[in-house]
């Protein structure tokens, strides 16, 4: 069961869009932070996101989240009990809820070169700093090449469908298909990206262009901080086992 919980926690981390892929020689945190550049002239907004992760072999997963962007800061709030997929056992979701891990918040701070994974039910968070190479990448704007592919309608919005290739200063690139809504300041109401292991599709709804409160992008005060996700998961499992032993 611990392995299943770790896999679900890993899913939370990879839901940060560019972390859904791997790259030789290091992480893709630099690409993740640069993901906010796909929103173009919309550097601050809130939205709901329906995400579908199509994995090779047919083990697809779907999830929904509350999403916010403020310049180079990105926040995702996910209800883990609503994740659906054949590879996710119901008992694993039930145990996550019991342990206070059913709600999770991802915070990507491009300005601090850090990622926070917050579990409000556990009053804990893990802070992960990006590598030195990724930190250097974040200090330089990526090259973005856009090619129009045609016009389509998504959720009633007339869109220009574009191929976008983003290349960071260290030469790593990621290709996206982006549907930019002409009635929403070219906001990308749908984004798709593919990798060898599968495809990630994100659809944005309930989009609001008011600037979100900057406090949303800070780890909550008074929470226990951990150095990495596995350390936090291990502490949660130990606490759960201790509680079970204490029961008469």
Describe the structure in your own words:
The chain is α+β, with helices and mostly antiparallel strands and 248 residues long. It has one domain (2-242): outer membrane lipoprotein receptor (LolB), chain A (Clam). Helix content is 21%, strand content 42%. It has five helices and 13 strands. The chain has helices spanning 2-14, 29-34, 90-98, 132-138, 229-246; strands spanning 44-55, 61-70, 73-79, 84-85, 103-109, 114-119, 124-129, 143-154, 157-167, 173-181, 187-195, 198-208, 224-226. Strand 10 (173-181) and strand 11 form a beta hairpin. Helix 1 runs antiparallel to helix 5.
Which features does this protein show?
alpha+beta; outer membrane lipoprotein receptor (LolB), chain A; 13-stranded mixed β-sheet; disordered N terminus; about 250 residues
Give a quick rundown of the structure.
By secondary structure, this protein is an alpha+beta fold.
Low-confidence stretches: 1-7, 13-31
The average pLDDT value, as a whole number, equals 80
CATH topology title: outer membrane lipoprotein receptor (LolB), chain A
Percent of residues in β-strands: 35-45%
- CATH structural architecture: Clam
């Amino acid at each position: 069961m611990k392995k299943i919980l770790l896999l679900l926690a890993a899913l939370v981390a990879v839901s940060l869009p560019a972390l859904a892929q791997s790259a030789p020689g290091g992480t893709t945190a630099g690409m993740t932070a640069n993901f906010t550049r796909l929103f173009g002239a919309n550097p601050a907004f809130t939205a709901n996101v329906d995400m579908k992760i199509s994995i090779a072999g047919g083990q697809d997963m779907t999830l929904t989240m509350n999403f916010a962007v403020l310049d180079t800061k990105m926040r995702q709030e996910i209800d883990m009990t609503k994740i659906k997929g054949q590879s996710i056992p119901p008992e694993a979701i039930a145990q996550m809820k019991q342990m206070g891990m059913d709600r999770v918040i991802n915070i990507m701070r491009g300005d601090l070169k850090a990622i926070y994974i917050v579990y409000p039910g556990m009053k804990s968070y893990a802070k992960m700093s990006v590598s030195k190479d990724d930190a250097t990448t974040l200090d330089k704007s990526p090259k973005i090449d856009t090619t129009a592919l045609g016009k389509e309608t998504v959720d009633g919005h007339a869109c220009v469908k574009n191929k976008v290739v983003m290349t960071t200063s260290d030469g790593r690139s990621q290709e996206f298909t982006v549907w930019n809504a002409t009635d929403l300041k070219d906001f990308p109401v749908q984004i798709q990206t593919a990798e060898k292991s599968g495809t990630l599709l994100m659809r944005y709804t309930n989009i609001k262009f008011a600037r979100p409160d900057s406090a949303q992008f800070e780890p909550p005060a008074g929470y226990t901080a951990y150095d990495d996700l596995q350390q936090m998961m291990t502490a949660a499992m130990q606490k759960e086992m201790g509680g079970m032993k204490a029961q008469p």
